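To fix ideas, we now present one chain and its tokenised fold:
***
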Amino acid sequence: MLKVGLIGFGFMGRMHLDNYERLMKEGADIKLTAICDIRIEELKNSKVWTNLDTGRDVYDLSTYSLYDNIDAMLAGEQFDIVDIALPTPHHADLAIRLMESGIHVFCEKPMARTAEDARRMVEASERTGKKLMIGQCLRFWPAYEYLKACIEDGRYGAVTAGYFFRGSSTPLGWYRDGSQSGGNLMDMHVHDVDMINWLFGKPDGVSTLARTVLTEGAYDIVSTNYVYPDGKVVNAQSDWTLQGDFGFSMVYRVNFEGANLVFENGQVKVNPNEGAGFVAELSEDTGYYRELSYFLNAVKNNEAVAVCSPESVAETMDIVEAEIRSADRKGVIEPV
């Protein structure tokens, strides 16, 4: 049985806990044994800010060993896997330390605060032989998996254009410190950057316009055009200044030679150039559940983390940093 520890009990830590508990109820050969957060006594009885619903405000953690210190948790427990759901600047050093201690690591996105730190994580995984997977959950989200399948099997011909968007209100706390979070580009927009990298490969260059509204030292609103040698027109936009009752949105529209696909309001509408359109049949499971299930199986069966390899996600970090450089230069095309 794989023993799992969770470090970080904010929104994403809670989201991961929900899915570990589901997996355990379904009979997965795992046991989440301990949770660590420096504010665990406060957080175990309180809500946290979120732009998505985890289904619960307050959690019963009485069945888990609780720690407010990582060193104490690692000394007091034995783990096969540790799940890191901490603020971004803490990802790289902790992930490397865990892998060097013989522990497999699942780490929430973004991979690290810098592309250089992401490469350090990749090197540590290769050197230690320990598996590392980053929580770029859209690679496991049914609506995006469907799009990936349409691209790979060529059922509608080549892609000619694509548009991706996500938006919400501005997160609170450390997210508004750009030196910590990297702002929208590094924390929210990175989802669609990773999708573009996964679907189409690394672009030759990027041209980004961005604006700072609320975050100190980083951008809150972004629009990027991606340069590909075949001339496909690809754009991704993100905005985390959408206050009031806006809520949360993630959408895409991708044009093929023979159809277009539109994802919005939780549905993928397929519009062939010839014939009637239809709504694609998709799994109801979220990417959060499916990514954890995938990683746990990879560890259990000693299989490669192929769908979301750390090398590929480190490439995503290269693209994000190129976008930041372009935004700093008012949209000048930056090579990736």
About this structure: The chain has a mean pLDDT of 96. The longest helix spans residues 310-328. The first strand starts at residue 2 and ends at 7. DSSP finds eleven helices and 15 strands in the chain.
